[in-house]
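dumping this here before i forget
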Amino acid sequence: MANEEDDPVIQEIDVYLAKSLAEKLYLFQYPVRPASMTYDDIPHLSAKIKPKQQKVELEMAIDTVNPNYCRSKGEQIALNVDGACADETSTYSSKLMDKQTFCSSQTTSNTARYAAALYRQGELHLTPLHGILQLRPSFSYLDKADAKHREREAANEGDSSQDEAEEDVKQITVRFSRPESEQARQRRVQSYEFLQKKHAEEPWVHLHYYGVKDSRSEHERQYLLCQGSSGVENTELVKSPSEYLMMLMPPSPEEEKDKPVAPSNVLSMAQLRTLPLADQIKVLMKNVKVMPFANLMSLLGPSVDSVAVLRGIQKVAMLVQGNWVVKSDILYPKDSSSPHSGMPAEVLCRGRDFVMWKFTQSRWVVRKEVAAVTKLCAEDVKDFLEHMAVVRINKGWEFLLPYDLEFIKKHPDVVQRQHMLWSGIQAKLEKVYNLVKETMPKKPDGQSGPAGLVSGEQRVQTAKTKAQQNHAFLERELQRRKEQMRAATVLPSVQIKEEPLSEEEADGEELEAEEEEPMDTAPSSCLSTKLANGLPAGRAVGGDSLNGHPIPGCASNPVAQELKAFVEATFQRQFVLTLSELKRLFNLHLAGLPPGHTLFSGISDRMLQDTVLAAGCKQILVPFPPQTAASPDEQKVFALWESGDMSDQHRQVLLEIFSKNYRVRRNMIQSRLTQECGEELSKQEVDKVLKDCCVSYGGMWYLKGTVQS
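structure:
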């Protein structure tokens, strides 16, 4: 008691756990430089990071006017690295070593015991560190100098060694490598060379550096304080009595062994109910793979809101014939591969998406056709089909579940959004697999004969049957549209005399009707789109509009306002877009909107283009080459003319260049910018303009979306 009285508590400090920067906070150490000599006042030219590897590179300027700097040595190093001729790939554009690069290395992989602390107003705020990195100077430029030296030596010895090489002719033996076994593949995956290759595949993320005294840095430092420091919201360091007791007296290992252990891939319904709703849906779909919505609701329980389930199911599954099929990236995560062929997850997801898309078009799929298009092995294709279909002898693979017409009728907005998503997937599949229009009709059930061979009589008979089936439906649809047009355009008290049109007037009206058709949200007409997730194409687009347009109105129309807001926001980010890319982004935007949104009323190509021009954009008439493979929508290029920043004038000069040239070299762009602006622009300013509007390919610069791979 006496010791406790001699050592009284003089102050109590509240400790808060701040998590705003928990996944982004790094500690940088510079072990080759004393703490008194910081890099705070040295200009930072660039910064980039590989988040998964926690690898950082900083590029800092060197003070070349300092008396301690040896200028002749700096010029010699630049000459060794870049050679006599300077170009865009030169490390030192000023022909002087005026910068150095710092590369990071991890000091420890476990940073759970480290945190950054900030003491303010009697409170201690702790933020966990995401990584601790040591930065040292990188000498990669010496490797480049060695490579230049070897190239020069090889060029000098090339003439003398050429004659000897022609005389020294040896016979070679061609050998074919054996198929790689599973053990050999495991050894290859764990090898240093493979790991280095995987590390090199991760792209760099370029960052903006702000100094310690910058106002934006001060703003970011405020996140080191716990945002909910009132004591009520901050419960990270508060435990309930039972949790605190469990920490003081954990269960013994013998008690844990007595509990029955289920397999790792088995989850009981009781355990499932403890998970959040989104995780419950994901676990169920990952295990079942194909499920009607009614069955999913019965498994989740009667108390679950169907709207929340609809919102969650669209994140992990796609609609096929009214049923939900789990998405491919759920079954094949990013870093996984095929157990049969070793194919990466990206290729597997693309092949499985093709199978799912085929089932949106038909009840039947032939495995050989899928294998021929996707170029995947038979085992991988069989796995795809077994997820969602059942094999029928002499017929192919039939979709596992019957068509769910009840769900289609009950949730048309969800069906429309899924149709938009399938349109985007269809566009990617067309480009990857070079799909062409399927002109062969399907073979009637029970008909014998080799697959893929259809006689001329069978084609004619099939066409007649389809025409008879569609005639009555088309007549009713035409009559309904005529009535809607009369009701929308004619007042009850006014009678309009209908007179026959001349041939020229009729042709003109047909042309206007074709121009006012709804926007083709499918990226190409090359594929047959008779069904959109089980719906006829006319019904999938929605019938509440007139020729694809919403009910006519002025610019105050909610649809026009929403469309204009989307266009302005998109061009503020992209600056240059083709009509094809804009339609793709619009489809993705529609897929993320809630059911019943005004934009689902239908938007035509003409309405979209008029909105783009009204939003301050201009169409750039890029002179495509005569042999171009670009579609008409890809040849319509729009650009934001004025965004309100300092680079507007530079972008306008660049766009004028591309109105006369399909592709341009950088030196031409830079000289034209210098001529128009009256002063020479810095490399950073030119890079910004090119990054906003262009892409580089093969040493040439193209407007975004115009380069054809």
